[in-house]
Design a protein that fits this description.
Blueprint lengths: L4 H16 L3 H6 L1 H22 L5 E6 L19 E7 L7 E6 L4 E7 L4 H13 L2 H7 L2 H7 L22 H4 L4 E7 L1 H5 L3 H11 L1 H11 L12
Antiparallel strand pairs: 1-2, 2-3, 3-4, 4-5
Helix pairs in contact: 1-3, 3-9
Protein name: DUF2461 domain-containing protein
Organism: Epilithonimonas ginsengisoli
Pfam families: DUF2461
Length: about 230
Amino acid sequence: MPNKNISLETGFEFLKQLSRNNNRVWFSEHKKEYDAIAKENKKFVDEIYSEMEFHDSLSKIHILRINRDIRFSKDKTPYKNNFGASLSRKKPMLRGGYYMHLEPGNTYVGGGFWGPNNEDLLRIRREFETNDSQIKKITSDKTFIKYFGELKGEDGVKTAPKGFDKNHPAIDLIKKKQYVVMRKFSDKEVFSDSFQKEIISTFLAMRPFFDYMSEVLTTNLNGESVFKD
């Protein structure tokens, strides 16, 4: 959705109506309206992608479908009540990803490592076990705190992962299974003309975190590249 109040408000009004009429009949009757909003949504994301290309090496845009995957869910409502999109960085050297979630009363921009594979997760944990000074420097920086407050992510275990000391000074970092950052926006902020600019500045504030984590995940504990020449 473009950074114009009318388009943003139209999109949110559609989502509000959808949440009250979350069924295929209603959606089919309002498909043309959705298609127009989805087109604006893609334009909005494309503009952010184009601007971010000046600052980072990106690979692709992924705009999430409005349809829910209900195969294994007790909730059988067929549609999401939000618009979501992600921007991927070019692997294998650049890690982390940018995400935006637009939803009435629950809009946020985030990024990081939601589900690292076992190998990456172990590498991250070993890094923090060996030296957590750099990640603490990044997360205590005033810009990081201004945008994100703190490093977030669910814990993978209650005490300590297997092979780690539960009394280690960095155990709060080590026991996480996710490492993410997030910034929330009110609906008023979403409808402002500066919203798109704020998304971009928020993404840029993630870069020190991403750059550090990319270095960790592309080297071993001796600082040597994991890629063969």
